[in-house]
Amino acid sequence: MFNLTPLMRIVRSSSVSVLLDVSLSSVSVLTVFLNLLVIIAISHFRKLHTPANLLLLSLAVSDFFLGFLMIFQMLLIDNCWFLGALMCSLYFYLNYIFTSASIGTIILISVDRYVAVCEPLQYPTKVTADRVKICVSLCWVICVFFHTLILKENLELPGRYNSCLGECVVVVSYVGGIVDVSVSFIGPVTVITIMSLRVFVVAVSHAHSMRSHVAAAQVSQFATNKSELKAFRTVSVVVVVFIVCITPYFCVTIVGGDAVLSASSIAFVMFLFFLNSFLNPLIYALCYPWFRKSIKLIVTFQIIDAGSSEANVLQKE
């Protein structure tokens, strides 16, 4: 990836600067808070430790840290970094790791829904909590290892590419940049799109089957299919929002950032990029009854009685 920070300090009116700072700060705080609620909810209630929810937990963790990093992005928008070269390199390093972990988790979520909808009978044996934990762990380890290689020079000699005091720049080689964009964007989006289309076809087939068969013996199976289709719709919303939010960033990265867009446009692209981490928990709140119920228990301090709390969370609406 290439740095998208403008090369010159941006001069804005005080009102615009205040509005921008307040907006970014608010989104950052809400992103951290909402994703923290997701982490607490899934971690606390043992009965929510399903394979699908463990993947959501991994996504919430990466979004949680990206919410923190959004505060530092405010400094880059004005191109006046005063935290030093080491913190600059560390910021980009962590940013790329958490972003890649989020992208990797989205792929795992797509695979989970693919198996659940396309191979429902094999799903309980193929997708287990232990296997999901292993996959999530590997995803994070690979992200750390990959970006350690990509940003090795910047980590070894922080600030080597800065041209003046207060600048925060990291540079990736041409080959490294191509590999990074391919692995972090082109490949994942291709895989997610193909699997989503396949699941959509199967989901439509299931919907027709559910309408055309009314035998009593098949009611249970149809109920299961309906539940999986509802979960697929929720995941589809997450995937679509994800693609909409990150595509502008990677498109700018591919064509060369600063030479193409104005500073204000780059600021908007970066804001949209981080906005995805804020929108994910809102999607959960709108689509998952267990999330709304667990949040209600958490904010009203009713999570002490674990038994009754889990019963309330898992109760059907």
From TrEMBL:
Subcellular location: Cell membrane
GO molecular function: trace-amine receptor activity
Membrane topology: Multi-pass membrane protein
SUPFAM superfamilies: Family A G protein-coupled receptor-like
Primary localization: membrane
GO CC aspect terms: plasma membrane
TM annotation in the entry: 20-42, 54-75, 81-111, 132-151, 171-201, 235-257, 263-287
The keyword Transmembrane helix is annotated on this UniProt entry: yes
Alphabetically ordered keywords of this record: Cell membrane, G-protein coupled receptor, Membrane, Receptor, Transducer, Transmembrane, Transmembrane helix
Family statement: Belongs to the G-protein coupled receptor 1 family.
Organism encoding this protein: Gouania willdenowi (Blunt-snouted clingfish)
Highest taxon, organism lineage: Eukaryota
Domain G-protein coupled receptors family 1 profile: 34-284
Protein name: G-protein coupled receptors family 1 profile domain-containing protein
